[in-house]
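Course assignment 3, question 2. Fill in each field.
Student: A.L.
Task: Predict the tertiary structure for the chain below.
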Amino acid sequence: MPEESTVFPTKVVPIPVLGRHHINAHLLLGRRPVLVDAGTPGSGRRIVEQIAAHGVDPADVSLIVVTHGHIDHFGSAAELHRLTGAPGAGHVADLGPYRTGRVREPYLPTGPMGRLMAGNKELHVRAEPFEPDVLVTGETDLTDFGIAARIMPTPGHTAGSVSVLTDGGDLVAGDLIANSFFGLVRGRPANPPFHDDPLRNLASLRTMLALGPTRFHVGHGTPLEPDRVRRWADREHRRLSRLNAAGRVTRRAGGSL
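Answer field:
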């Protein structure tokens, strides 16, 4: 009889980049490790040290998935590629920021926190450019990289935003959703400070909810329970519908710089 292939359930490990939960990357552990997100510029060594602290040789990382083209998520992608040797993956719709090292501006705030943060000079620095080795255009299976998971396009926060859904139901969601006040209020779903297209992002969020995830692992804050996210999404749908009817929803035109 042929031997049965060994199944490695995927474990999601948070990797703090700033503070305990303020900015997160995530390490996915299966047959081989995969890193999701690359932090701010200059945080590559901190991320590598934390990977090693979890008993993982950074040289074993098989892939670095970048969820979107904002400076706190792709800032150290090029550095991490050099430190680990792992290829990077990013969606083609965010190639502009990745290749130039500059985000699309102006930032489009989702509320008071975003308006306050938009002037922060740290959000306007230039990161080292990087060229994704794996160009994502649609749902992408990650079995060949050693984890039972899929990259799922979730546009709206940026045109090229993606999430990673494991076969166990964990959704590593980037900035599809956040904890309130940029991660400071734990367990309370909220918009991140900025969205390029709030209506499209909400549609992506509801699409992911329909897949029945067990938990949302986010870029800002602690993991979120799906039931709380679902109730929040219903309220957000009503809010955005009112604003859109009044012509008060700001959306970035197209996806160019």
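Instructor remarks: The longest strand covers residues 11-18. The first helix runs from residue 44 to 53.
Grade: pending
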